[in-house]
Amino acid sequence: MMKKTYLVYCVAAALSSAHAVAQSEPTQSTETKPSAEQAPIEEVLTIGYRESVQKAVQQQRDAGGIINVLKKDDMGKLQDDSISDALQRMPGLSVERDQGEGRFIRIRGLAPDLNSVSYNGTSLAAPEAGRRAVALDVIPSDLLESVVVSKTLTPDIPAGSLGGNIELKSMTAFDRDGAFYSLSSELGYNAQASETNPKFSAVASNTFDIGDNKDSFGVAVAGSHQDRSFTTDNVETGGNWDFDEPGLEEFEQRAYQVTRERTGLALNLDYRPSETSQYYLRSLYSEFADTEIRQGIITEFEDPIAENTASAGEITRELKDRKETQKIQAYMIGTEQTWQDWQLTLELGTSEASESQPFAIGGAQFVQSFDDGLGYQGVEQLQLIAPDSAYQGEGYSIDEVEVSDAYTEENADSLKVDLAYDWLQPSYQVTFKGGIRISQREKTAREDIFIVEDFADLGVSALTLADYATGDVEYGFDRFGPGISADALWGVLDTLTLADFRDDVESSIAQYQIDEDINAGYFMADLNSGAWQVIAGARYEHEQRDARGTRYNDELNEFSPEYAEFSDAQWLPSLIGRYELSNSTIVRMAYSTGLVRPSFEQIRPSYFVENDDGDIKAEFGNPALEPLTSRNLDLGIEHYDETLGVMSATAFYKSIKNFVYEADIAGRPGYESFDEAVTYINGDDAYVAGLEFNLVHQLSGFNSWLDNFLINTNLTFTDSEATVDWLDDGTRMERDIPLPSQSDTTANIALGYETQDLSMRLAANYKSKYLAELGDVEDSRYDIYEDDNLTLDFSTKWLLSEQLSVNFAVNNITDEEYFVYTGDKRYNAQYEAYGRSYSLGIQWVNW
């Protein structure tokens, strides 16, 4: 039976941020690297950390591929409400945010869609319509025992990533000795919104006797719920600058009111009738409801203007009001059987994800024209210059209201069989392992769009903003004026037959279904001999994809079904080595290959052609896109001191083929008669190279309070390059860009202080600017960059007794803003502020 330490604050910090150069569990040799069942770990009943950190570092030291580990007790320490918030402090990882909350994870500078997420070895379905990336803010951190980020892609890891795989590991009753339960309650506060946010979670597990088998059946259950309300102040241009006639074309001021509810449940059952036989059921249910009300002021100038100048133009006041619910479910049933030197694993898994946005107001617009007096001032935080009438409801006339009803669903089923054999010899040991995996994935998306306009002709008498106005909107950047009432708008819309206003073109183009069948097999060998460990093998994956969508021809006003098929097969070899230079110094080296299939948005067979005053224009997906592949090299060294600590450095290089970007292919073969043909294409080769440094150090030898400090820091430098091309009057042109989402520098530092009863941590997270989007493939001046970002967080935990503790956290201490610019920092693309957040909680644990 396994007894796993219930690690406390700094214990978990060492695990989560340490550059663990370790091997994933499926490839560990049971002779030299004991499994959890073979290596009992003593429970620690206080919040001391020395012994536990030493054991954790030893575990990292003894294994072979490159991973990072995040333990349960390090999730949530800094108000990490989701997995993504916690993962951002690991080496080489950074987060993409939505409304200030971490959402998607980048690994070593590679975008989220180039990394994979799995739950106990089964790939999770993604809820969003166009993406493969799993939004990790959907999953509460309370439901998991640990997270393992594998940066070395061994053959037993399913394809789906270039940067790495994020493995979510559920808790089981055998993680602890006997009955265990934990209850926690937390109250959060957002300073900008002046809102309080409750959170509750509970965890329980126990083992039971079945017949003569003592402690053979385990039950573990976890649940959590959080209700968080906050506001966001935003101003953005969306890149609407004209650099040929220097000036701003339009910008938008936005005030968000957001409520996010996270609910998670997990139930895990284990039956272990003997040391050589076990059966298990793993389940996960997570629901994330995001309610958003967005009041906006869109100012469009007659001609591009400079700062502090006046112009004619138009102001549109806009409301967006929607509730979006994302759900992820995953269920696995399996068994592990051991006969002497053989081990068989058989598992059947299914995952379902959905995104529902029923009848949302996608844009209700009220318009007012101005002959003069419109302008702006400021650089990052733009402010509107306008007459007083711009802030009065009477001057705005209702123009149109867009309503959308959208639903996306993804289902992923898989069957895997793994067989391993340990071949033991006097001077070496080899574990041979092979397996097959059959998986089926289906992605369906639909969106019905309704456009209501010409309200006077419909007999509506409420035609000005004054008829729908609320009180003045709270907006921290500028004067805003009245908001728009969603209830008043629905009162008018409910008198109409909404189906009469369906936009058949947009609605039809938005619907598609994509089926993927993937058959995979692998073989690998894990050799241990003296100071060497070598893992070698290859994975084979065959994909068959069928897609269905809609083609619309504007000239003929004709709809027709669009079908596409794609087939591909890839070999993915890898070779990983580990060599002990001494008892305290280890060298790691690895060659591996990765594969990522294009996103569903990029390959969907939707095709729209229009004749725009004689110009033939088209916009469509590209089902023929080739998968992205990479060849990866890693070389690292790590040194352990005799007390508690590790220093490591790792160099990595990724050569990437077939990266995907959006381009206008008019004039190219097959599209010679088009004036515009926007789709996605495979680019030339790209690369990512970098260095990762990590230090975990426990101060010692002072014989004073200084011995209570733990320093935990990591630094990653990354460089990348890709080439994009286009046609200019028939001549092929090209330019080099960094890969989107790749920061040159990411860094984390955490300073912990801990006694037997008190734990504190101050943590800083930094990422440098990165290319967020190609604004114009042909002109680098329009490229969209996210600016440098530095956040500072603090947490503390006080142990009142062995069972009861109080915790307090402050997030975003420096009130860091989010800033995106167009080409140069002088040109705003987006600027947002979220404010500080505080939390106070209490936890009771039956140690």
TrEMBL record:
The keyword Transmembrane applies. Residues 60-164 form the TonB-dependent receptor plug domain. It is found in: Cell outer membrane. Residues 1-22 form the signal peptide. InterPro entries: Beta-barrel_TonB (IPR000531), Beta-barrel_TonB_sf (IPR036942), Plug_dom (IPR012910), Plug_dom_sf (IPR037066), TonB-dep_rcpt-like (IPR039426), TonB_rcpt_bac (IPR010104). The keyword Repeat does not apply. Residues 366-813 form the TonB-dependent receptor-like beta-barrel domain. GO terms for cellular component: cell outer membrane. Keywords: Cell outer membrane, Membrane, Receptor, Signal, TonB box, Transmembrane, Transmembrane beta strand, Transport. It is a multi-pass membrane protein. Pfam families: Plug, TonB_dep_Rec_b-barrel. Its main location: membrane. NCBIfam families: TonB-Xanth-Caul (TIGR01782). Belongs to the TonB-dependent receptor family. This is TonB-dependent receptor. It comes from Idiomarina fontislapidosi. The lineage of its organism: Bacteria, Pseudomonadati, Pseudomonadota, Gammaproteobacteria, Alteromonadales.
